[in-house]
Design a protein that fits this description.
The chain is mainly alpha-helical. The chain is about 40% helix and about 5% strand.
Length: about 170
C-alpha cells in the first residue's frame, strides 16, 4: 500500500522553531530592559582634558547561539519534511536524496535540480512534478529570486544542504 501525504508532521515541526524564536525574543527583551537605563559612553572634562569612558556592552549569553542554531536546524527540517510529503502527494516514493533545495543562482538551480543530467534520480525534488504547483512554489522561494542576495550559505554534497542529516525519521 502506498504511503499517503500528511502535512500534520510539518505543522508540528514548525512549532519548535516558533518556540525557539519566542524564547530568544523574551531573553533579548529582558537583557535590553535590564540595561536600558545605562549609558555606555560617558564624556566629561577634567581640567584641560576631555575624558571619554566607554563601558563594555553586556555580554550576550552563549546559549543564544545554541537556540539560534536549533531554530535554523528545525526550520531546515520542516522544509525537508515538506518535500518528503510533496513527493508522496504526487504518488511517488521519496528517497534519501529528497530535500528542500536552497540554491543561490538560477543557473545552479537549473543544473542541479531542474535539469540534472548527472544522477538525475538524485535530484532533491525527484518525484515532484516539474509542472506542478509545489515545484513552482519551491522554485519561487529560492534565494536567487529575492531582491537582495543572502549571505547565509549551506554546504553539502550538492552545495545546497547540510550534510549528515538522518533521512529515516519523517514524522
Amino acid at each position: 500500500m502506498a504511503a499517503v501525504a500528511d502535512l500534520s508532521g510539518v505543522r508540528l515541526k514548525l512549532g519548535r522553531p516558533e518556540e525557539h524564536l519566542s524564547t530568544l525574543k523574551t531573553e533579548v527583551d529582558a537583557l535590553t530592559e535590564q540595561h536600558s537605563d545605562r549609558s555606555l559612553i560617558d564624556v566629561r572634562r577634567d581640567g584641560d582634558w576631555h575624558v571619554v569612558e566607554i563601558e563594555p556592552p553586556p555580554s550576550i549569553p552563549r546559549r543564544w547561539a545554541l537556540i539560534g542554531g536549533d531554530l535554523i536546524h528545525n526550520l531546515r527540517s520542516v522544509l525537508d519534511h515538506l518535500v518528503w510529503q510533496l513527493v508522496l502527494r504526487d504518488g511517488q516514493q521519496p528517497s534519501r536524496w529528497n530535500e528542500f533545495p536552497i540554491i543561490d543562482s538560477e543557473q545552479r538551480f537549473l543544473q542541479e535540480v531542474k535539469f540534472r543530467k548527472r544522477n538525475p534520480d538524485r535530484s532533491p525534488l525527484q518525484g515532484i512534478r516539474v509542472d506542478g504547483d509545489a515545484w513552482a512554489i519551491i522554485e519561487a522561494a529560492q534565494p536567487y529570486k529575492r531582491p537582495k542576495p543572502h549571505t547565509l550559505r549551506f554546504s553539502g554534497e550538492n552545495g545546497c544542504t547540510s550534510a549528515g542529516r538522518s533521512r529515516r525519521s519523517r514524522t
